[in-house]
Task: structure prediction
Amino acid sequence: MPPAAIDGIIVLLVAGMTYALASEGLWGAALMTFNVLFAGLISLNFYEPLAALIAENVGFLSGFADTLSLMLLFIIALIGMRIGTEMLAPAMVRFPGPVYFAGPGFSGSPARR
Result:
């Protein structure tokens, strides 16, 4: 696959994620920013012991143990925190217009109406 095609796919993925995050407004973008930050911290702290465990017990995955464990921990932590924040704050917080439209740009994506 040519590098330009891979770059195009990545641009489309980033644009899609930006649109999805922007549709949640300032509150959703801020919550997701902190969810991703803390999921990254959790996964980077605990992936090495899990990778060692995977490498010892599942021989054919030993080459991918680091990637697999980091990805699994990140996904599990992110989904757990996303569900937790949705349960704790199910309603969107109202902000003044200029803050609502400028806010997601500071926490990860531009706002849309």
Summary: Residues 109-113 have pLDDT under 50 and may be disordered.
